[in-house]
């Protein structure tokens, strides 16, 4: 039984109701390109089930998420020719969370790109 929030944009993406550029999918995890990338190749990795923040994600999903982060991180670096990679994760509005379905940002970085995260 999936955990879905009918108001959540990422739940709609998981359900295929809103299109996205999917780059990784398993039974429990989905990754797609961010619609407003910091750099081309900026990817989002998330549990398919709706958990509002990092602290709500069951620890049993840790292995699936870590496998996805590693695979997507490698693919993003290879596809973009990046020199580095940031993993970023925001919880609650005070920390910059806009979409309340927990997700991880993988952001390709380039030598001296001047980006301050
Ligand atoms: P947050 O600030 O919550 O950590 O990040 C939310 C991210 O989701 C933002 O980087 C934003 O560009 C991205 N985003 C928001 N709506 C959509 C959408 O409909 N499709 C995709 N692919 N990304 C989205
Ligand atoms: Zn959701």
From TrEMBL:
A Gene Ontology molecular function term of the record? catalytic activity
| Active site (record annotation) | 103
Instruction: Tell me the ranges covered by the HIT domain, including all copies.
Output: 9-116
Q: Which domain of life is it from?
A: Bacteria
Tell me which Gene Ontology terms the entry assigns under biological process: nucleotide metabolic process
Motif Histidine triad motif positions after renumbering to this chain:
101-105
The name on file for this protein is: Histidine triad (HIT) protein
Lineage of producing organism = Bacteria, Pseudomonadati, Thermodesulfobacteriota, Desulfovibrionia, Desulfovibrionales
Span of the full-length protein shown?
A: 1 to 117 of 141
């Amino acid at each position: 039984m999936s955990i879905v929030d009918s108001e959540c944009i990422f739940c709609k993406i998981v359900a295929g109701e809103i299109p996205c550029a999917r780059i990784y999918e398993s039974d429990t995890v989905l990754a797609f390109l961010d619609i407003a990338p910091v750099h081309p190749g900026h990817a989002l990795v998330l549990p398919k089930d709706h958990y509002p923040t990092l602290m709500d994600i069951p620890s049993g999903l840790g292995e699936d998420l870590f496998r996805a982060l590693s695979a997507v991180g490698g693919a993003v670096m290879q596809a973009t020719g990046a020199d580095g990679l940031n993993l970023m994760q925001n919880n609650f509005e005070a920390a910059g969370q806009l979409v309340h379905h927990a997700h991880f940002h993988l952001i390709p970085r380039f030598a001296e790109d001047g980006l301050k995260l």
